[in-house]
UniProtKB/TrEMBL annotation:
Residues 89-574 form the Amine oxidase domain. It holds the Pfam family Amino_oxidase. InterPro entries: Amino_oxidase (IPR002937), FAD/NAD-bd_sf (IPR036188), Zeta_carotene_desat/Oxidored (IPR050464). GO terms for molecular function: oxidoreductase activity. This is Amine oxidase domain-containing protein. The lineage of its organism: Eukaryota, Haptista, Haptophyta, Prymnesiophyceae, Isochrysidales. It comes from the Eukaryota. Transmembrane segments: none annotated.
Length: 622
C-alpha cells in the first residue's frame, strides 16, 4: 500500500523498492510488516527519512508492475562520497566513475591527492617539491601496472635494478634483479641462491628453513589470520629456531620497512602475508620499480585529470568532520524491538527496513582555514566510502556519535598508526651511489631505514641540480619525530656519510625537506586483525571501507592492496561480484600448493574431519 501511494506521488527511489519486495506467497505478511512500521514513522513525522525517500521528478521514473514485482528506474545518479584521496580512495572513485550513473565526490584533508604517497611538501627554501617517502612497485603489483597501461603512463616507472642493503659497517647484501637470473627456480630456492649476502654465514641462513612450515600453513584465510595474528613475528621466529643474527640482519629490517614496526610489535600473520606477497610468491616477486618522478606528479596528476574528465569532484584541503543519517536512531531501535517480538519470517522482512534508520545520508566537511563557528559543508550521499588509514578511521569513529553507536565501528578505535619520517637532501656536489634504492639496519634501535638516489631514479628531473639528491626515510620513527628539522637533516646526512664515505662527507646540504607523518601508516600489531574493517559494513548498509587496512582475500599488500580494495568496494556498491575487474595473484607454485595441501590434510585428519579443529603449528609453539 505504501509503495502504491509512493508511486502515485512519484517520489519513491529504487533503493526503497528493492527493500520492499512483493515476495510470492508473502503478500499478507508484507502488508502486515509495512502496517507495523507506518504508525512509528507517521507518529514521528519522519516518513521520508526512515525510508530514505528522495524526491524524483515524474519524468525520471519508470515504474512497471508484473505479477510479483515492482521495478523502478531512476535517472538520478547515485551520489558516492569518498573520504580520502590515497590509493584506496582514488581507486574506488576511478572504478565507480567508469560505470555510468554515479556521481563521485572525493574529499581529502591534504592539499594534494595521494594520501601517504602525496607530494604536497616543500623543501626549506620553498622552491623544491618533496614526497612522503619513496614508494616502490613490486613484481606482483599487476592491478596498478594495468592502471598505468590504461592511463597510458607505463613509462612513469623505472626499470628493475639491483638494490643494496647497508649497516653502519657498509654494504651487507645485494638483491639482484631476480627476473634477469639465468634460470627461474622454484620460489624460495631462487631467492636463497641468487641473493648476495656478503657477511651473513650460511649456518645462520639455514635457520630460516623451519619458517617454511608457517608459510605452508598460512594461506591468508581468515582462519589462518586467527591462528597467527595474536603471535608476534619475533616470537614466531624465536620458537622456530631462527638464529638471532639472521633475525637481526635480514628479518627485522624487512619487517621494519615492510610493516613499519619491529618484529616484536608486528602480527606474525601480517608478516607472513606481507613476506609471501613481496618476496616469496615467485622468484621475481621482490623485483621492484620506482617512479621516475614524484608519484604525485607522474601518476596521481594524470589519473586525477582523467577522473575529473568523467565528472569526479575533488575537494582537497577539506576535512570530513561528521556525518548525518537518514532517521532518528531511536525509531530504528523501537522498530528493532518490535521486530524482535515478531515471528522469524516477519523479522527477515522488516530487519532491512529497520537498519535503514542508520544509513548515512550526508558527510559533513570543513575546508582548511574555516572558522570553528562556520557551519560545515554538507554533501548528501547515497554511499559513503571510508578511504582513510588506521589513526584517521579511529578518530572519525571516536568523534562521531552516529558511527560510534555501532559495535562494528567502535572496534576501529583500537586501530593504531605508526610514524614515518621522510627526508630529502639536496647536496652541493655529486656523490657516488652504488645502488639507487637501499635498505639499512643497525642505525637506530627499533627504527627502520631506507635511502635512495633520487637523481638517478627521477632522471632527468634533477639534472639541473649541482649535486646529489638523496632521500633517507625512517620507519617506526616516533623517537625521531620530536627532533628539529635541522637536527633531522644533520642526522640523515651523518647516516649517509657512514654508508657512502668520503665522497658524501665532503658534500654540503644546500636544501632539504623534512616530512613527518605521525601515526600515518597502519600498524599491524599482534591482535589487530579482529579490529580491521571489511569492505562492506554490516552495521551501516551504505558504508564501505577501502585501503591497505581492509581485510581482503586478494593477498596483496600496501599500494596494490589499497588499489585492489578500491575496486572491490566499487563492486560492492554496484552489486557486482567482488572480484570483477580485479587481476588475481597467480596460483601458488606447485611445491607451495603441495606443502599447503599436505598441512591442510594433516590438520583435517587430526581434527577428525574438520580442519578448523585440527592443531595449528602455532598451537605447538605456544
Ligand atoms: C614512507 C613510506 C614509504 C612507503 N613505501 C611503500 C612502498 O615502497 N610500496 C608500497 O606499496 N607502499 C608503500 N607505503 C605504503 C603506502 O603508502 C600505503 O599502503 C598506501 O599509500 C595506503 O593508501 P590508502 O589509500 O589506504 O591510505 P592513505 O594513503 O593513508 O590515504 C588516506 C587519505 O585520507 C585522508 N584523510 C584522513 N582523514 C581524513 C578526514 N577526516 N577527512 C578527509 N580526508 C582524510 C588523508 O589526508 C589521506 O590522503 C609507504 C608508506 C610510507 C609512509
Amino acid at each position: 500500500r505504501l509503495l502504491r501511494r509512493r508511486i502515485r506521488r512519484n517520489d519513491c527511489t529504487m533503493a526503497t523498492a528493492a527493500r520492499m519486495p512483493c515476495r510470492p506467497g508473502h503478500p499478507a505478511k508484507l502488508s502486515a510488516s509495512l502496517l507495523l512500521l507506518v504508525p512509528w514513522c507517521v507518529s514521528a513525522g519522519i516518513m521520508r527519512t526512515t525510508f530514505n525517500l528522495r524526491p524524483t521528478s515524474a519524468a525520471s521514473i519508470v515504474a512497471s508492475r508484473s505479477r510479483n514485482t515492482v521495478t523502478m528506474r531512476t535517472e538520478e545518479p547515485r551520489r558516492v562520497v569518498v573520504v580520502g584521496a590515497g590509493w584506496g580512495g582514488l581507486s574506488v572513485a576511478h572504478a565507480l566513475s567508469k560505470s555510468g550513473n554515479v556521481h563521485v565526490t572525493v574529499v581529502d584533508a591534504a592539499p594534494r591527492p595521494g594520501g601517504l604517497v602525496s607530494d604536497g611538501f616543500l623543501t626549506t627554501s620553498g622552491t623544491r617539491r618533496a614526497e612522503a617517502g619513496q614508494h616502490g612497485f613490486w613484481g606482483e603489483y599487476h592491478n596498478i601496472f594495468a592502471l598505468l597501461d590504461e592511463l597510458s603512463i607505463s613509462d612513469a616507472l623505472t626499470g628493475y635494478a639491483e638494490q643494496g642493503q647497508y649497516s653502519p659497517d657498509g654494504l651487507q647484501a645485494v638483491w639482484p634483479v631476480y627476473r634477469e637470473q639465468k634460470q627461474e627456480l622454484p620460489t624460495g630456492i631462487g631467492q636463497a641462491l641468487y641473493t648476495r649476502f656478503l657477511n651473513l654465514p650460511l649456518t645462520d641462513l639455514a635457520t630460516a628453513a623451519p619458517l617454511v612450515l608457517a608459510f605452508s600453513e598460512f594461506d591468508d584465510s581468515p582462519e589462518a589470520w586467527a591462528r597467527y595474528d595474536s603471535i608476534s613475528f619475533r616470537d614466531l621466529c624465536v620458537r622456530l629456531g631462527v638464529s638471532k643474527r639472521l633475525y637481526k640482519e635480514a628479518f627485522e629490517p624487512m619487517i621494519l620497512t615492510g610493516l613499519f614496526a619491529p618484529g616484536e610489535e608486528c602480527s606474525a600473520a601480517a608478516a607472513l602475508g606481507m613476506a609471501y606477497f613481496f618476496v616469496l610468491k615467485h622468484q621475481t616477486s621482490f623485483d621492484v620499480r620506482w617512479a621516475r618522478g614524484n608519484v604525485g606528479e607522474v601518476i596521481f596528476a594524470p589519473w586525477v585529470e582523467a577522473m575529473k574528465a568523467r565528472n569526479v569532484t575533488f575537494m582537497q584541503s577539506t576535512r570530513v568532520v561528521g556525518f548525518e543519517e537518514t532517521a532518528d536512531s531511536k525509531i530504528g531501535a523501537k522498530i528493532d524491538a518490535e521486530i524482535d517480538s515478531t515471528s522469524a519470517e516477519i523479522k527477515s522482512t522488516l530487519r532491512p527496513t529497520a537498519q535503514q534508520s542508520s544509513r548515512l545520508s550526508a558527510v559533513l566537511c570543513s575546508p582548511a582555514g574555516a572558522a570553528a563557528s562556520d557551519p560545515p559543508t554538507r554533501l548528501e550521499a547515497d554511499n559513503v566510502v571510508f578511504a582513510v588509514g588506521a589513526a584517521a578511521l579511529s578518530g572519525l569513529v571516536r568523534n562521531s556519535p552516529i558511527l560510534s553507536r555501532h559495535a562494528e565501528l567502535r572496534r576501529f578505535c583500537n586501530l593504531r598508526g605508526t610514524s614515518v619520517l621522510a627526508t630529502r637532501l639536496f647536496l652541493d656536489r655529486p656523490v657516488r651511489t652504488p645502488y639507487s634504492a637501499n635498505a639499512c639496519w643497525g642505525f637506530d634501535e627499533g627504527v627502520g631505514m631506507t635511502w635512495f638516489d633520487i637523481r638517478q631514479l627521477h632522471k632527468p628531473a634533477h639534472d639541473h641540480e649541482p649535486g646529489a639528491v638523496l632521500e633517507v626515510d625512517y620507519y617506526h620513527s616516533n623517537s625521531l619525530l620530536s627532533m628539529s628539522d635541522s637536527d633531522i637533516v644533520t642526522k640523515a646526512k651523518h647516516d649517509l656519510d657512514q654508508m657512502l664515505g668520503a665522497d658524501c662527507v665532503a658534500a654540503e646540504v644546500i636544501d632539504a625537506a623534512v616530512v613527518r607523518l605521525p601515526s600515518g601508516v597502519n600498524w599491524y600489531y599482534p591482535g589487530s586483525y579482529k579490529n580491521m574493517p571489511d569492505t562492506t559494513s554490516t552495521a551501516i548498509p551504505n558504508a564501505y571501507f577501502v585501503g591497505d587496512l581492509v581485510r581482503t582475500r586478494h593477498g596483496s599488500w600496501s599500494q596494490e592492496k589499497a588499489f585492489v580494495t578500491g575496486i572491490e568496494a566499487a563492486n560492492a556498491i554496484l552489486h557486482r561480484p567482488v572480484e570483477s575487474g580485479v587481476i588475481p595473484l597467480k596460483d601458488d607454485e606447485t611445491h607451495v600448493a603441495f606443502g599447503r595441501s599436505a598441512v591442510s590434510r594433516v590438520q583435517k585428519l587430526l581434527g577428525l574431519g574438520d580442519r578448523a579443529k585440527g592443531p595449528s603449528i602455532a598451537d605447538f609453539l605456544f
